[in-house]
Amino acid sequence: MSNNTTNVLILGAGYGGSVVANTLARELRKEIARDELEITILDKSGTFINQAGFTFIPFDLFTPEELIMPRKKLISPRVNAFYGEDGEVTNVDLKKREVTVKSNKKYNYDYLVIALGCQAAPEKTPGLLDDYNTFFTTLEDTYKLKEKLMNFDKGRVVISVANYPIPCSGAPVKFSFMYDSYLRHVKNKRKDIEIAVAWPIEGIGPPEFNKFVSGELEKKEIELHRNFITTKVDANKKEITSERGETLKYDLLISVPPQKTNPVLIKSGIADSKGWVPADTTSLQYKGPNGIDKNVFVIGDSGDASILKTGIATHYQAVTVSQTLFNMIKGYNIIKPYYGKAGCPMITELETAFTDGRGYIPTWKYNQPNEAYKTTRLGWYIYRMYYHLHWEMSVKGMF
Ligand SMILES: Cc1cc2nc3c(=O)[nH]c(=O)nc-3n(C[C@H](O)[C@H](O)[C@H](O)COP(=O)(O)OP(=O)(O)OC[C@H]3O[C@@H](n4cnc5c(N)ncnc54)[C@H](O)[C@@H]3O)c2cc1C
Predict the structure, then answer these.
(1) 311 CB under 6 A from ligand 1?
(2) Would you say residue 381 lies in a domain?
(3) Cα 302 to middle of ligand 1, angstroms
(4) Residue 248: inside a domain
(5) Which domain holds residue 141?
(6) Following DSSP, what letter does each residue of 88-110 receive, concatenated?
(7) Most Cβ neighbours (<10 Å): which of 41, 81, 146, 370?
């Protein structure tokens, strides 16, 4: 590396970080070959796990092998990649432009992309860890939940989304629809099992998304409790309590725990009072107490509380930031705006002996809410295929 080499450092080789690394490595391959540019990506693990697939695991729609991929197969060889102790970030110093990892190695940068995702914080809800069943954390937790769910034959299941924001607002209702379909058409147990969803804010996604899923919940006789911020779980009484003091009884509790940005970012003093990493909602540049840092970008689940967190949103943010970085490295100094493009795939019916699968992938932008939509049989097939295509198309930044 010469003194004239521009250094792009990407923290996190999950969805967002991988797209930025692969897009830049392709678009700027000449600059890399001429030693004018170096791209480095850091991650604590050498394995990519597609967490969006967890929702499907209890219904046997994916195997773990389909959701796991070594990062060596995903990140361009033009990128310097460090995993494990040399990749696990322990401190980010924006003043010194220096990132420290577990092995104590330090990395400097000209441009920094923060894509460290977010983390479950079940400890924020008293009692939650006493009765903690979730598909929102790890494959192991999801398999434990699957076992409980498959052995549950009678009673009341409550799916509680403790607080907001969460990654993928649509995932909890999608899970309830798939469970409903599974009980009706596979297990023939729906009449013995009540399903309720406790949702922490008023709307579920943008207006048309909310309208559609609300109608489906009603049709499927799934109870919906809006504005129910779960503040307490009582495992003995089998009851959750909301901020407003309402209670809901359950026999089996499924929780989407409160979320927070990556703890390393909180420890490094980069998060704001809401607990997320503030960024300009259009340029995606870090917006700290001293204003915008032009050389630091924040994408995906780590990012600003006001920007919707989904894999689809992360993808478009990564594409946008890659274009801005391309412009800056080439000296054009043009910021590509992020217009809030996001989406949240929906499924309302499983494909069973008695039903066609039904799905759809609604998308929207900041000032352009999604249009009215219906789930379709074709949508089901596209969504089912997508997690196979996602490795080659999305993660490698091909679109
Ligand atoms: C159950 C579930 C279902 C979902 N369903 C959908 C869906 O259907 N559609 C959709 O669009 N989105 C969905 N999402 C959301 C989607 O998965 C996320 O929005 C997306 O993965 C965010 O990408 P990211 O790059 O910000 O974070 P991640 O993909 O989480 O990547 C963060 C990376 O940072 C790494 N990391 C963490 N800490 C450190 C550290 N200290 N040092 C180094 N590396 C570190 C991690 O190993 C990881 O690779 C779902 C999420 C969940 C949990």
Answers:
(1) yes
(2) no
(3) 9
(4) yes
(5) 121-259
(6) -EEEEETTTTEEEETT--EEE-S
(7) 41
pLDDT tens for the chain, 399 residues: list them: 567 899 999 999 999 999 999 999 999 999 999 999 999 999 999 999 999 999 999 999 999 999 999 999 999 999 999 999 999 999 999 999 999 999 999 999 999 999 999 999 999 999 999 999 999 999 999 999 999 999 999 999 999 999 999 999 999 999 999 999 999 999 999 999 999 999 999 999 999 999 999 999 999 999 999 999 999 999 999 999 999 999 999 999 999 999 999 999 999 999 999 899 999 999 999 999 999 999 999 999 999 999 999 999 999 999 999 999 999 999 998 999 999 999 999 999 999 999 999 999 999 999 898 889 999 999 999 999 999 999 999 999 998
322: domain CATH number is 3.50.50.60
Query: Whole-prediction pTM value?
Result: 0.97
Q: Which residue among 234, 259, 284 closes a domain?
A: 259
Alpha-carbon distance 206 to 202, whole Å? 11
DSSP state string for 10-38: EE--SHHHHHHHHHHHHHTHHHHHTTSEE
Q: Is 264 in the pocket of ligand 1 (CB under 6 A)?
A: yes
Same domain, 170 and 101: no
* Last residue within a domain, chosen from 259, 290, 316: 259
H/E stretch holding 167 reads none
Domain count along the chain: 2
Q: How many A from CA of 51 to the centre of ligand 1?
A: 7
Pocket of ligand 1 contains residue 172 by CB under 6 Å: no
Q: How far is Cα 269 from Cα 92, in angstroms, rounded to an integer? A: 9
